[in-house]
Amino acid sequence: MKRGSGRIRIIGGSLRNSRLEVPELPGLRPTPERVRETLFNWLAPVVAGARGLDLCAGTGALGIEALSRGAASVQFVEAQPAAAQALRDNLARLKAVGGQVATMDARRFLAGSPTPFDLVWLDPPFDADLWTGLAARLEQGWLSPSAWLYVESPRGRVPELPPAWALHREAEAGEVRHALYRRAETLPLS
């Protein structure tokens, strides 16, 4: 990793004000601090003890923020080897317990044996247009019955998501739309 390539800070919890080293990589777009603050204010009642999945993790700032705030575990999935290694280095340096990093494409990860997660962060590279496909795969056993799902996309773009994902809150910051969904089990029609 190049020194001075960038740093972002964790904004809450036990790792508050800790800095994450951010490698200089094409397409790496850390979630801005104010967006993370808004998201974790929304998630405050459900983070403690949750099992999280940070798909297309990049810097891992979302998952590390969750670990800092008491999530039981976070599975990070990042396809770029340099970004995945920087994430491992940050977790080790911060002594963040409960984080595991898989260096692989999110689609390949979701083709494996499913384990349900309570919180999922879906923030793929914007130019890859992966939202709909990854969301459909998540519905194949990867979500707990009432999972919370964070989706980040370009401003003005609402990805097509499964009908079981009910919009809870959304906002825009700069060129980014960020939204929190709640998965609700579909009730049978009477």
UniProtKB/TrEMBL annotation:
SUPFAM superfamilies: S-adenosyl-L-methionine-dependent methyltransferases
EC code(s) of this entry: 2.1.1.171
Alphabetical list of InterPro entries matching this protein: DNA_methylase_N6_adenine_CS, RNA_MeTrfase_RsmD, SAM-dependent_MTases_sf
Presence of keyword Transferase: yes
Keywords per UniProt: Methyltransferase, rRNA processing, S-adenosyl-L-methionine, Transferase
GO molecular function, one term: 16S rRNA (guanine(966)-N(2))-methyltransferase activity
Enzymatic reactions: guanosine(966) in 16S rRNA + S-adenosyl-L-methionine = N(2)-methylguanosine(966) in 16S rRNA + S-adenosyl-L-homocysteine + H(+)
Protein family: Belongs to the methyltransferase superfamily. RsmD family.
Protein name as it appears in the record: Ribosomal RNA small subunit methyltransferase D
Organism this protein belongs to: Dyella lutea
Gene assigned in the entry: rsmD
